[in-house]
Amino acid sequence: MKRIVITILVLTLTASSLFAQKRRRNRYVVGDLRMHTLKSEVFNNTRKLRVLVPEGYNRSKADYPVLYLNDGQNLFDPKTSQSAQLEWGVDETIHSLVRKRRIEKIIVVGIDNAGRRERANEYLPWKDEFLSPPLENPQGAYYPEFLANEVIPFIESKYRVRKGADNMAIGGSSYGALITLFTLIEKPGMFGGAILESPSFYVDEARILSESKADIDWPGKIFLGVGTNEMGAKTCDPKDESHEAVTDVKKLNAILEGKSDVKMLIDPCGVHSEIVWGRRLTDALVHLFPYKVPQKKL
Fold first, then answer.
1. Is 75 exposed, middle or buried, given 0-12, 13-18 or 19+ CB atoms closer than 10 A?
2. 113-167 pLDDT tens trace
């Protein structure tokens, strides 16, 4: 009997310890965040997909719109962030907006980049001469294929997502915004919404802006966000919008006039940071996924 009691006690302590570890590991995350490992044949590597599902997902049979975001490591948890433990706070923002009925329930898929060095390799469709050391032959041209043939089919096979472009959006920041816009051009009609935060449009003499002038089936809704102090200068004139990042975003906004429902947010003295992108996320989500009053059944 004594041996049985001791065994039960050990098992109880072990279970409690495991529970405590799980709770500590997720203490920064609000909601149900699920992890998957995706092996890519396009890039011949593996990465995590971080999937945030709506509250009550397991009890529901509903399908949900889906938002794919690049740099998954930086979206939900400061402990996984590659940027000085700064994160977007996607989970907290969505939890608040859904509770306040400002947006509809959505699934968010955070697509991890392949590491600090490989991030540039996968997000750059062309050489960035300002990158140190530069990549002579970046592989970003294959990223749209990676999304279309590997990421999206994987998610659609495991989650109840609404099908069709009107129910899919994509987004990213910096290089992640550049490759997002490149994907919209290379895969027209695949996404119905997009978030472009502090985009690195300067690459290859702003080639992406030139290519955006083509006859393209743009998403129905696009959010553009940029700060007037992207370089993080110690002093900032909030009215000074002469920075290249701001003027490039304005150029894209002009290109998209009459082609998409664009919301552009120029953030006075906003810097190049996950904290700032998270702060502007509310405007982006409300623009892309506004709350819809449920239709009463007759």
1. buried
2. 999 889 999 999 999 999 999 899 999 999 999 999 999 999 999 999 999 999 9
**252 contacts 224 by C-beta, under 8 angstroms:** yes
Residue of 41, 37, 104 lying closest to 67 (CA atoms): 104
Task: For residue 131, give both structure tokens.
Answer: 């990158």
Q: According to the model, what pLDDT value does residue 85 have?
A: 81
| In the chain, domain spans | 30-288
Three-class DSSP category at 113: coil
CB 291 within 8 A of CB 103: yes
Rounded CA gap, 287 and 82, in Å? 28
Which residues of the chain carry a pLDDT beneath 70? 1-26, 297-298
What 3-state DSSP class applies to 117? helix
Rounded Cα–Cα distance for residues 180 and 197 (Å): 10
Calculate ∠ Cα 31-34-39, nearest 5°: 155
Q: What's the CATH number of domain 30-288, 3.30.870.10, 3.40.50.1820, 3.90.550.10, 3.40.50.10420? A: 3.40.50.1820
- Structure tokens of 3? 């041996």
pTM attached to this predicted model:
0.90
Q: pLDDT tens-digit profile of 17-38?
A: 333 333 334 678 999 999 999 9
Q: How far apart are CA 106 and CA 155, in angstroms?
A: 13
Degrees to nearest 5, angle at CA 145 with 155 and 136 = 130
SS3 of residue 265 by DSSP: strand
Pairing of strands 45-53, 32-40: antiparallel
